[in-house]
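Collaborator request, handled under Task 6.
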Amino acid sequence: MNRPDDTDIIERFNDFIKSADFREINLNGKKWEYISAGSGKNNLLLLPGIDGKAVTLWQDILYYSRHFKVIAFSYPPIPDITTMTRQMLNILDKEFPGNISLIGKSYGGFVSQVLIREKPELFNKVVLSHTFLPVPPRGRKIALLFPFFKLLPEFMVKRFYRKNLSKIFRGQRVRKEMSEARAYFKETLMKLTSKEDILCSYSRIKEYDLNYNLSGKTKLPEAGKILLVFGDNDPVCPPEMRKKMEEIYRGAHKYIFSGTGHSAPIVKREEYLKIIDDFLDIGNA
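Structure tokens returned to the collaborator:
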């Protein structure tokens, strides 16, 4: 039985689904789906996590569309990150001309790091939140296991996927917002996600881990236009990786949450939004 807070968030999500502006565009044989919202003078790109679905960003879409013209992509079934980001940039050039700000959390943050290296001059301000750098041992492990996972039936792939995601939040404080998020995940995310979606998500991580060196010399947006947001005990970005990110993006703005693990955008939502609002200068957006 759903608790009242679970029911409330599911109802609000369903209301969003009924009113959202869902769009799609075909590019090189792939169907790209995205949500467009707001009518501000400045563009804001929101990227989803490993789930890859724009609808999972519904709360952020509602919030930021009051100030920006928002676009939130779903990731199409493209297994390599380079091809996917280049196609995404093509769509942005055609559909949302002009500079754009970017918020990428977790998996969306790794996609963002590839995007800003492909076309740094496009991005006005960039938020990289609770994200990660390439980890070659992880990429090699994915490469080793990938042929096996391709043979599994969809329900087993989804079971592995759910278990792997739960490890990220294990042992962290559970508050009302977390119970709502968990209910939402159970009620909607697995219905929206296919085996192909999951395999492509991990395939892109594999390519990122094995083929990208973010420490190399490359043109980036100005350091003052980048905000790094961390959790001091986030298992996705442990302290050693956090220090390396700070070196790569030397001079960037930085904020570190204490004791929230990977969950600050949920359990510290008001504080989290204020940090980003101030960075984006949302009052003048």
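The cover message to the collaborator said: "DSSP finds eleven helices and eight strands in the chain. The mean pLDDT is 88. Please let us know whether this matches your experimental observations."
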